Amino acid sequence: MQTRLSDHVRERLGTFGLMAPSIAQCAVGAALAWIVAIELLGHPSPFFAPISVLVCVGVGLGQRLRRVTELVVGVSLGVGIGDLLVSWIGSGAWQLALVVALAMSVAVLLNSGALFVAQAGSSAVLVAVLVPGDGAGGLDRMADALTGGVIGIAAVALLPASPFTIAAKHLSGVLDALSTVLEQAAEAIEKQDADLAAEALEQARTTQAAVEEFEAALETSKEITLISPLHWHRRARLARYETAAVPVDLALRNARVLSRRTLSALGEAAPPPAALAEVMREVSEAALLLQLELSAGREPTLARQALLAVAARERPAGLGFSAHVIIAQLRSLVVDLLQATGMDHEAATAALTPLEEPQGESRPA
Question: Are 316 and 357 in contact (CB under 8 A)?
Answer without folding.
Answer: no
